[in-house]
Amino acid sequence: MTLPVAQSRSSLALANLRAVVILIVLAFHSVLAYVRFVPVSYSSFDSPPYGWRAFPISDSERWFGFDLFCAWQDVYLMSLLFLLSGLFVWPSLQRKRQWGFVRDRLRRLGIPFVFGVLVLVPIAVYPAYLVRGGAPDLSSYWHAYISLPFWPNGQLWFLWHLVALNIVAAAIYWVAPDALNALGRFSAAIGRRPPVYFAVLLAASAVAYVPLAIAFTPWQWSDYGPLSVQWCRPLLYGVNFFAGVGIGAAGIDVGLVAADGPLGRRWKLWLGVALASWFLWMGVTSFTMSGQAPLFVEIASDLLFVLACVGGAFFVIAASLRFGTKRSRIFESLAVNAYSLYLVHYVFAVWLQYALLGITIFVVIKGAIVFGVTTVLSWLIVIGYERFRVGIRYLAMPLVAARTHAASQPGAKDSGFIPKPSRPPR
């Protein structure tokens, strides 16, 4: 998404929120190697349950504070990302219509997904293979990699989920053109009363999540193909995505995410809701970890997960609306490049964790090193790539101009020269 030149306070707050969220994502993946929850011992690379998909590296240095941080982010962060991804779906659908919209999403999300699965993820996973006793030569690694019963996609699972949800949105727009607009009107009506919106989103999320969590457990992932899925969460992510679509259809300067609205003014209330629901969820969930808890305890844990999920998202949005309405060049760059940072950062995070194995330093410093270096290197790669693209387009402009000039000369058609329509660089 390209940020508008002239931004309202609401759009500026949401842009800064994108910057904060991508930093949280980078921090989350940077410290996963240092959580105490994961056992230090490594199972074989090609043996179930393939724990390296979530935790490629497990360092002997641990800190419980990272467990708390990662647990909280796991509750609400991805749902919030889907909500933010839905905000500009409606304006884009109106502008491009369904086929142009789907084509654009396949180009912007589908192609990077394929490239990431084929190139970036194998590079990122190589250290996980090495620490599990794999032979260091690349041919052995590649044989072990392609022999897996699934095609690893690391953090890129988010992209194919997003492609699917965007296609669903386009299909709804095609079949019932006014449905998303009606969702926007409903969102605007209840968005002026955040507690009401909270209750509606909570109820919808519970219906989407709890039955699947009971059927598949909250932790089970699929083990086949490149389109991995955490079985309990697709509908939950869909609810949050279409919540974002409704907010965007209503207009981000009205309703729930209005910068001068009640959500931002009462950010302390939502902080209390987020913390209380999170601690309650952790407390009840601790009784389910043995796998022998009564059904009513599992249902209570799943309901509290949904409460903590919605509560966490509401707090982060509220804090952004309250404190994120000032322009910052650093945050603006992070927001503009958030998607690209998401694509490339995982490689750096995993390799840095691998490089720091066996080095005895305070674990918080380890986590800070991985996060800081991952952020800087990812940022430099993204900015360098964007400047390279701009440079290529700039160098190509004289050629385009020459071809256009040649096409305008008499006899150009007779000579067999068929010019292609030129388009200015974006």
Explain how this protein is built.
This protein is an all-alpha fold and 426 residues long. The protein has one domain. It has helices spanning 9-31, 64-85, 89-131, 138-146, 157-175, 179-191, 194-216, 234-250, 262-265, 267-285, 295-323, 329-336, 338-355, 363-408. Mean pLDDT is 89; it is low at 1-5 and 412-426.
Short overview:
Helix content is 69%, strand content 0%. With 426 residues, the protein is an all-alpha fold.
What characteristic shape results from the CA principal axes? Answer: globular
Mean pLDDT: 89
Give the biggest beta sheet: none
* Multimerization state: single chain
- State the distance separating the first and last CA atoms: 13 Å
Specify the structural class: mainly alpha
Roughly what percent helix? 55-70%
What's the number of domains? Answer: 1
Strand percent estimate = under 5%
Spell out the helices and strands N to C.
HHHHHHHHHHHHHH
Low-confidence stretches: 1-5, 412-426
Number of helices: 14
Strand tally is 0
Q: Could you tell me the radius of gyration in angstroms?
A: 24 Å
